[in-house]
Design brief:
With 442 residues, the protein is an alpha/beta fold. It is built from 15 helices and 16 strands. The chain has two domains: 17-223, P-loop containing nucleotide triphosphate hydrolases (Rossmann fold), CATH 3.40.50; 234-433, Rossmann fold, CATH 3.40.50. Strand 3, helix 5 and strand 4 form a beta-alpha-beta unit. The longest helix has 15 residues, at 65-79.
């Protein structure tokens, strides 16, 4: 498969974690995970955070950014540790856009803090309040939270943020896209004025810069890679196919090439459920994960996928945020995203930590403009194939793609013209924030 042009390798550094000034307990936890060399974002972020600086970092998924802020945060908390007995106030707050990312960050804190007396908890919607209340009553040094559920606790007076020393906004661009800006501002007003602030974002859009100006004090700027670029470890290809034959083509690729594990993206929750059902009928084990499913159902689906009980996990963009699946070999865009930047986020679930991955997009004539938007963002054209027996109808006419407006009502994108096989330069539509999830869903 043809590999698209991408960045040159970042290079392998001889720098080791031992040279970054981390405590022996943290180095032991790092070595327990068989890590030796820090990633570029870790090499820059860890010393800056240890030095007490505010940070504005452009870092996409798969760059090691979570460890980049978790390790120095744990070390700084240990410099003035909480008492082993008695109540522990919340000293570090990490805000994330989705419950999946909250779980992932919480797991990283437990992993790297395994040999330290630091206590942490995660707070997100879609689950009962009881366990969260019990954890907060017992006292926690670190809280990882989605904004909506955290404000629920603030309203119930079950959490006090008056002693927070460090605020971290992870995937800040996604939080703004999901409409959390007002919740974030409310939470910031509850924090002490004197604190360290760390902002991580995949892009530096105008709203992100505005938030950074409001939040950060003379921040250190870190950009480890050009924005909106796919990792060179990911091979990308698009298949032209009629809209009503996408399921057949996907099943054929899975069976023909013997795929054992694939993360497949749809635009809508209903579409995710429907695709999983159709794949099952095509003798491909599949399950869906999206915001309408309970947290227990989402965890169960992800566990089955990771353990190989199902070959395909069908996900929407919001549900996929924070999914960290080691060695994921295939990502499929069953439907191209309405926002070009989401393409990079999607395919970034594979090809992580230096491993090779494959990103496959199934493109019908309706999606010609979406494909051009993606290629304009990437700066190159994707290789486009047609599989024998699945060639698209040359006389097919494009149909409008249903989208959701800010109030959750359906609207139609105007008919698109042009052939997906011959992408042309085209203007990109302005990105609109997605509707914010109900607070109970985090």
């Amino acid at each position: 498969m043809q590999k698209c042009p991408a960045l040159s390798p970042l290079g392998v550094s001889s720098l080791k974690f031992e040279s970054l000034g981390l405590r022996a307990e943290l180095l032991r936890a790092i070595h327990d995970q068989s890590y030796e060399t820090p990633t570029p974002v870790q090499r820059e972020a860890i010393p800056a955070i240890l030095g007490g600086e505010d940070l504005l970092a452009a870092a996409q998924t798969g760059t090691g950014k979570t460890a980049g802020f978790t390790l120095p945060l744990l070390q700084r908390l240990m410099e003035t540790p909480s008492p082993r007995s008695g109540f522990r106030p919340v000293r570090a707050l990490i805000l994330v856009p989705t419950r999946e990312l909250a779980i992932q960050v919480g797991e990283s804190i437990r992993t790297y803090g395994a040999h330290l007396p630091i206590r942490s908890t995660t707070i997100y919607g879609g689950v009962g309040m009881g366990p969260q209340l019990n954890a907060l009553r017992a006292g926690r040094d670190i809280v990882v939270a989605t904004p909506g559920r955290l404000l629920d606790h603030v309203g119930r007076k079950t959490i006090n943020l008056g002693q927070v020393e460090t605020l971290i906004l992870d995937e800040a661009d996604r939080m703004l896209d999901m409409g959390f800006i007002h919740d974030i501002k409310r939470l910031i007003n509850l924090l002490p004025r004197q604190r360290q602030n760390l902002l991580f974002s995949a892009t530096f859009s105008a709203p992100i810069k505005e938030l950074a100006d409001r939040l950060l004090n003379s921040p250190r700027l870190i950009q480890v890679a050009r924005q909106n670029i796919a990792a060179e470890t990911i091979s990308q290809v698009a298949y032209r196919v009629d809209r009503n034959r996408k399921v057949e083509l996907l099943a054929e690729l899975i069976h023909r090439d013997g795929w054992k594990q694939a993360l497949v993206f749809t635009r809508t929750k209903h579409g995710a459920n429907k695709l999983a059902e159709k794949l099952e009928r095509a003798h491909v084990t599949a399950t869906a994960i999206h915001g309408n499913k309970s947290q227990s159902a989402r965890v169960r689906a992800l566990t089955r996928f990771k353990q190989g009980e199902v070959r395909v996990l069908v996900a929407t963009d919001v549900a996929s945020r924070g999914l960290d699946i080691d060695g994921l070999p295939h990502v499929v865009n069953f439907e191209l995203p309405n926002v070009a930047e989401d393409y990079v986020h999607r395919i970034g679930r594979t090809g992580r930590a230096g491993a090779n991955g494959e990103a496959v997009s199934l493109v019908c004539i309706d999606e010609a403009r979406l494909l051009r938007d993606i290629e304009k963002l990437l700066g190159y054209e994707l290789p486009i194939h047609e599989l024998a027996g699945f060639e698209p109808d040359p006389n097919a006419r494009p149909q409008p793609i249903a989208q959701k407006n800010g109030r959750g009502a359906s609207r139609r994108r105007p008919n698109q013209t042009g052939r997906a096989a011959t992408p042309r330069a085209g203007g990109r539509r302005r990105r609109k924030p997605a509707a914010k999830e109900h607070r109970s869903h985090g």
